[in-house]
Automatic annotation (TrEMBL):
GO terms for biological process: dGTP catabolic process. This is Uncharacterized protein. InterPro entries: dGTPase-like (IPR050135). PANTHER family: DEOXYNUCLEOSIDE TRIPHOSPHATE TRIPHOSPHOHYDROLASE, DEOXYNUCLEOSIDE TRIPHOSPHATE TRIPHOSPHOHYDROLASE SAMHD1. One of its GO terms (molecular function) is dGTPase activity. It comes from Paragonimus skrjabini miyazakii. Residues 141-165 are annotated as: Disordered.
Amino acid sequence: MDSRPVPLSEVGHGPFSHSWETHVRRGGIKFRKYKHEKLSCRIFDRIVHNNSTLRSGLAEAGVDLELVKSLILGGPPNCNEPDLAQKPYIYEILSNNANGMDVDKWDYLLRDCLHAGLGHGCATIDLERFMHFCRPAPHPVRRRCEQPEEKEEEENCQSHGLPNHPSPITDSQWHLSFRDTELENVLRTFGLRQHLHQKLYQHKTVTSIAHMANDLLDLVEPVLKLRSISLRALESDKPEDLDAFLQLHDSLLWDIYYKRFFTLNPDQPVPEALEKAHKLVYRILSRQLYVYVDSVFEVHTDDSCHKGSVNADRIETNLRSVVTCTGIREPFLSETLPPDCRLVGRISLCQDYTWIPWKRFLTSNLYQPENTASQILDEIFSRLPAESVIHDKAELLVSKSSFTSNSTPHAPQFYFYTRTGQTFVYEEPLRVVHAYRLYWRAPACDPAASPSKLSITVAELIKAFDSWHRENIGDRHVKSIS
């Protein structure tokens, strides 16, 4: 019965998994409270309530339902049990908010490696050693000071998406800890996570299809009200609202393709938005995808709020020096970037790079990074030649996606113990990467169209992107940026 919380934590996902959550949360402020973990708890309550056999079996086994839900949420339950208050490490098993080392991460990393043809991931993650050397152990607690200047520093760092440094030690708390010999094994876990993001989750074809899916969901949203269905399932106490959400599944894609819109009056003509969504699904199935053009990356680190730009050709020889200078065993970027990528940001302690001030990257206010994508789009569109086939800015897309070196919202703290029973905390800096990718929403292929026309348009976009990059950041085709 103790193994059940792992699959239960995922039952709250809507169609298309995390892409659905992204679509719902893009609907505005009121939809940003939507989280699949909370919905998992509601569905779990529904399953137990509707199954008397299961309910009695759980009661006989002494299963605390509130504890199960708290494990899913990664926080303490609503009940006030002194035994659980003395064991805070229990909530780090499934959803570890301290450092991201939890069984949920091990599960999806190994599973995704297997189904992506990368093996079981066992060459990177030694799961048996994790289980053998994992122990609860007491560690000092760091509490933030309340001095005005420290509050100001904390607010400044948080505005950049960076954590503040902890304050002096005042108490101790129990955490799930690993033997000190497993430090490399722990850090390799996040090296594998980064590798999957680079090679799988954020592959240019994957992101292209994801943006097409987002566009078709936006098209059907005014008619099907998918965001409202999801939010009502989370907040409403009416069984029918949760039923409506549970009826949503991945076959929604086929419903759109075959125009099976059950919420519409059969005598009513199909709205134009749904026709456009149907064409987008056809393009996905026939591999007529949005054309990926180029990308640029903005890097935030918790040791500096400055921005800069480095040339991709110079990264390979300097990454290992970062490891020796910082004491970090696994570098954030473990391999050379491909030639179609540049890194914009700051790499700690690599003194060979020429730093580019933020104002040369963008003219927007540093505290308003959400405007970045639209500004890049405006500048690139303005650089297209007058004879270009792209006459509308809506034909282009600059997407912003974020990746962090850890799944926690703050710099992770990994807890270890030694053979003699001593404990220590290993702190890793949190690096946040914002990727800005340029796509062309190329029209569906016309059999009579010349392939050379598409090639010419893509070449124009690449030239415009290079011009923007050279003017605002630097020339990526030279060995140094000046």
